[in-house]
Design the sequence.
């Protein structure tokens, strides 16, 4: 269970970096990574508590990270 948590954080960090590098978001690198990691943590714990999610933990991390970036539009705060 612990290696899955570490993998989720790593995948979420990569998704945050790639989304900022590709121009999908304009939050800043650190902010995008924090948003992705937060969304991945939330989805990871929902998966543990309620069993909701996809079959693969990696797919859960990717989908939750992208979803968090879409839900939290920090580029409008400026």
Sequence:
């Amino acid at each position: 269970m612990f290696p899955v948590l570490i993998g989720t954080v790593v995948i979420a960090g990569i998704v945050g970096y790639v989304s900022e590098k590709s121009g999908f978001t304009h939050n800043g690198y650190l902010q995008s990574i924090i948003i992705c990691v937060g969304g991945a943590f939330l989805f990871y714990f929902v998966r543990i508590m309620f069993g909701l999610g996809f079959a693969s933990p990696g797919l859960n991390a990717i989908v939750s990270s992208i979803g968090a970036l879409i839900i939290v539009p920090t580029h409008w705060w400026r």
Observations:
- The mean pLDDT is 90.
- The longest helix spans residues 29-50.
